[in-house]
What does this fold into?
Amino acid sequence: MELNREEDARFLVHHQVTEKKLLHLEKGVRKLGFQSGGNRILAGLLMASVMGLAIGLVFDGMVARTFSAIAVVLFLIFAAGVYSIFKAWFDAKKTIHLQYEAGKKDMNYDWEYRFFDDCYEVIGKNEASRVCYSNLGRILEFTGMLVLVEKGNVVRYFMEEDVEKGTAEELREFLERKSGTKTEFVSVR
Amino acid sequence: MEPLFAVRMTHDEDMYYNQVLASKQSAPAEKPGKKNFLSRVDLSDVIFGLLAFFVFYMTFPAEELAQRIVQSALMAGVFVLVLGQLNGNRRREKQRIAPDADERNQAEMIMESSGLAGEPCTVSFYEDSFQLENPGITTSYRYKGVSWIKETEQYYMIFWTRSTVIPVEKAGFYRGTPSQFKAFLEKKCQKTIMKAR
It folds into this structure.
């Protein structure tokens, strides 16, 4: 595949994969998933548990016992949910660390992104892709990180500070215009 | 430049199903010998049992503590046994009717989320690289970056990374043959192709 000339690119990005960036991406993806329902489920469980306990306190006898039991069970499920979120995060952290260390030996961590008028090119050590903007399904911004989700479940990402030609703001607007999608913002600490 | 081998395929359920099969690590062989009771106990059963015990303990009206504990423990035991039996029956029935249902479901999910269902794609193999062409995206790979290669009945699956797989359908060759291709790929990538199933 013949690549376009670098100097013709409207925007240029040099991105090096680091463990910090991988963790940032993981946090963003996690938060994005959680926003789509996880937080509502946990809040619902907690509220139902509190209501059950309140009913248990107001009434006496069998009714009180039943509602207290349900409230405790719901609270346990809530606690298990919170625990599983933390466990999943620590497991992901461990996996990212291991994968990053394992990938170090291949040194396949340097990427260049060239954005032209009709397509963009992604160049790595052993691979190069040319992507039409119509292939861009979603544009995400995880506080300082731009994430491009392409058809075929391909995710590309880089920090806004990695943009070398043009600015991150201009690039985001350019991508929105070219792909016809709006950027979704996710706050990541 | 003309490719040495070229394959035309469609993003269909079979392609993703074969990908799921090839992605699976072969399960370690189960050691023979008797299993003790504790190793057969499932953690979810224990959690269910404890929750059931707690609910029965809170709701049973018996005044005497020992009686309440025994009643609750017995009821929780029966509850877990019945639930386990029902789950086991359902799993066995599902396995009997469709042994590959889980893999098929997973394949369908991946295909739908990819947004490429029904789209054509081509893979062309040259002397020092190979190229995958999907609508709107072309990617060129060097052979030395290939991690491993697996073979199913219908496909060769070239694993670029753990999550990036390049499928090559054996029935889709319009340049070269699958048997010539296998030897070529093993030589170029310096890898042995492993059978997936």
Observations:
- The beta strands of chain A are 11-16, 110-115, 119-123, 127-132, 136-142, 145-150, 154-159, 163-165, 183-186.
- The longest strand of chain A covers residues 136-142.
- Chain A has two domains: 7-17+108-186, 19-104.
